[in-house]
Every structure is written in structure tokens, then in C-alpha cells.
Amino acid sequence: MRTDLIRNFCIIAHIDHGKSTLADRLLQITHTLSEREMQDQVLDSMDLEREKGVTIKASAVRMFYEAADGQTYELNLIDTPGHVDFGYEVSRALKACEGAILVVDASQGIEAQTLANLYLALEANLHVIPVINKIDLPAARPDDVARDLAELLGVPAESILRVSAREGTNVEAVLEAVVRQVPPPQGDPDAPLQALIFDSHYDAYKGVVAYVRVVNGTIRRRQTLRLMSTGVETEPLEIGIFAPTLRPVETLEAGEVGYVATGLKTIRECRVGDTLTLAANPASEPLPGFKPLKPMVFAGVYPSESDDYNLLREALEKLQLNDAALFFQPETSQALGFGFRCGFLGLFHMEIVQERLEREYDLDLVFTAPSVEYQITLTNGEEIVIDSPAEMPDPNFIAEIREPWVRIDIITPTDYIGPIMDLVTRRRGEFKHQEYLDPTRVQLSYDIPLTEILVDFYNELKARTRGYASLDYHFREYRPANLVKLDLLVAGQPVDALSIIVHADQAYHKGQRLVSKMKEVIPRQQFDVAIQAAIGKRVISRANVKALRKDVLAKCYGGDVTRKRKLLEKQKKGKKRLKMVGSVEIPQEAFMSVLQLEEEF
Q: Which fold has domain 300-316+327-368?
């Protein structure tokens, strides 16, 4: 296909603004799939994607469209993930395109991730085509949304396309806009090969299948390829295009999008953002922007039944074949036994991994409270990084602790500014600026420690704004903080899986709440159980779970009081002896209750 007849574009949007439904309509109009093959959210292959209404895994498809000018164009659509946790994959997918369709819900308007994804597209120098979707809804406000978009992008409001992807209304105009407005790809088919890997998946027969956009040069079968960041060389088993199923072809030329079945056995050798080149005639430099994926959130994952440890390890290994961002290593806990310390891109990524492990591999799991990565400078000058409270060194050897901070952008109706400011300042947030998008909606920006938004922040935000607020965040920097390790002791024994790292100012409140919650969930034993929260050797809160007692005085009807005292003393000695040999079983709810400490103090 001539380069001037190729158009590479993606669809970007906030979650649930109709991105996947619009992709379905484009596939129907271009007859890429027959009516028999069509289904809702055809590019979302996972059940979780369909249920949650969010694209988790990027996908691509090649369509042929006969435009109004009589020419047949090759359109490569790259469907990007819709959640902030997958921001790096989105940025790589955008690098594979020249244009982007910005989809905005006619009833919801511009939201946080609409802006975040738009800025990513503008940074990548893409031509943005604004589209207002869901104009068929009773609550649709297409004129108001068009005015907001016109102000944001500096285009006439009447030029913005208005469609209903569900009904198919005016969708063909989107394809015409892509053909007319998106520039054709630039690239030299005779130059040394440079192909951007914007996603990949693992296939049991073909190894790692890399999704590539050929920037310069040509990929042919039976040529040895090299990955420029790792230096790994491989001869591809197959090259092809997405139709949307994998269809083999002989060559992929500059400007085209397709796949390369590398035959590699681990996805870590073929990273998103890396550059493919020829081993025989390599390019002088890789394409810019590559960086290894770095986990931001860490949690312990343990099987409920210790016998399932090997099954959990196999499940994690299989998941990692398709998800290079998932990191795990073995870990042991006195309370929970053998398990794994896992790293995730964010909370949503953690939730997806948890659901996939439980559904696809039928595992019953216990997840510990999520934590972040802390940088610690020791008194001897050594720098260490920890991601678990159990790894925290003795406070006497710590010179400084630094925690990660993120910038959050919240878009909300103006009625809820007060409750949001209260929520964020309670969690150590620092106000940066606010900007009115229109008379009724405002964008608030804060810097806040990442650990403060890990648990329940999003739910609390939605509750305080009746579901109207939207949130986007990105990493800013590490800052020094006065942090301490809060240990929980049950019957004098520390429970490592219930330890948390907290700010010193919040330690007493959180210690009291943790002890109170533990008292509710730990069952009564035959002896008194002391529950204590401690910072180092100093106990800051304590509660007792009273013993279950038998009424040993029941048979004493009357008689001397010394008989009763003798029986009670005998019982007391028995309880004391039992306490020395007894052990307290901690139920699973106890580990989950750590996640609910963020209530009103």
C-alpha cells in the first residue's frame, strides 16, 4: 500500500465514554468483520474488560475504507488502555500513530483522564479529532460539551463531530475526518530498520508476539532481528497484520502496523517501548522514549490454604507471560506462611491481577495492605529501597526516609470543592492550583503522598461528590518524611503481615483504630489475649480480648466462700498455664481490616 494512503490513529477517552463501542462501529462500517463475527466490545478480549467497561490490554486492527474521494485507504486503529495505571502503554501506543480521536461523553463532559490522555496526545504531536459521543442519551448536553472542547482545543464548536456509537449515528463522518485530517506516516522503507514495540502478548506456540509500528525500513521473514535495549537476537517465526485476528504477510514496510512472532519465551526480553532492528544492518540509535516499567504499589499475596502455594506460583508465572509489569518474589510471614511479594503499576492493576488469579486459576487468596517503595538513607551513608514494612531497619540506624509523592488532578462540579479539599488535606495533600473549565466545573490540582491515596481514596472521593468527580494522578518525586513503622502484637507476638508504615503524626490515631478493629475480628480464646500497637519498643495502644470462661461456681450452691475462692484460683492457674502453650489464630478479616483505617478520626 502506498504510504500516502495509510492512516495510523488511536481512540483516547476517559473510562466508559464509549471508546470500545465506537471501535465496534468502525469495524462494521469498513466490513472488517462480518455480522456473524461481530460482538460488543470486539477488541476487548478479556471478560474483565467487558464487565468493568475499561480496556486493560491494548489491541490493534487494520481496516480498509473507501472514502468519498473514491480512494481506498488503509486505516490502522490502535485501541489504547483507558486507565491511568497504564499511562506508559498509552504513551507508547500514541507514538505509533499520527492522529487521535478524542471521545467525550455528551452527558459527562470533559473528565480527568480525558485531559490526561489529551495532553499525552499533544506531547506526541498527534492531530486530535474531537468527537462527542452518546448524543442519544436523555441527559446529553452536546452543545455545552462542544463549547468546552472548542475552548480547550481552539477549534470552532460547530466543527466538532457529534455521534452515537451505540446507534451508529454519524459514525461514518469520523472515518472521513480521519482520512482528511490525519497526516500519512513519514518513513524511509530503504533506511535501516526501526520498529517501535507498542505492546505484546504471549502465545504458547509462537512465543512473545510483539505489536510493532514500522517507523523506517522493512521487516521480512527469515531476517534476524535485534531488540536494541536488551541486545537479544531472534529470527521471527511469523510476521503479519491484525485483521483483527492475526493474519500472516510477507513484509511490513515503513508506516505500517503489524505483529512479529519472535519465538522468545519471556515477555521481559521484549519490552513495551523497545526498538526492533536488523542484526545484520542495525539502526544507529533506538527510537526515543523507552523506559523499563516500574512497579509503584506492592502487596503480599498468600494462598488461604498453604497447600496451594505451588498453584499460586504457577498462576503468577503464567500471568507474567502476558503482563511484563507484574513483578513477584517469594516471601514468608509468621502469620500467613509462604507467599509472594508482588509489585503493580497501581491500585487498578492490583485489582485486575487479584481478580484474574481468583477467576482464571480458581485460587482463594489473602492480599495484605498495599504499600509503596520507600528510599532510606542509613546513618552509615548507605542507600536502601524497601517496599514492605517487614524490611524497615531499626529506627536508630535511619538518617532519612523518603516517600513517593504524586500530582492528582480532580475534576468536579463546583458544589463539592469543600468536601474534596477536606478529604485531601486530611491525607497530607498540598494544594497547587485550581482552574474553572466552565461556570459549574472546576479542576483541582494537589501534590499528595502516594501511600495516602492507595486505600479507599477513590471510593471516598466518589462518595463525597455523589459520583461526579473524576481523578487522574502521575508520579512527581520522592520527599523526606517523618515516617514510623507501626507494629501489631497479638498475645505479645508481632504479626508481621499487619505492620504498616505511617506518618508519625497519624501513628496514635491509626494505632488506636487498628487495635479496636483487631479486638472486633479476633475470636475469644480460653485465655485473655492482649492486642497492642507499638512503635519500636513503645506500646501506644492496647486492648484485651476477654477469655471465654466456664461458670465453675455453678455447682457451689451455698457453703463457705473459701470453696468458691479455691475453685476460682484453680481456674486462674489453668488459664495461666493455657496462655503459655496456647496460640491465637488470626482470621482473614483481620488482614483486610487494615485497609479500613482511613475513616474519620
A: Alpha-Beta Plaits (3.30.70)
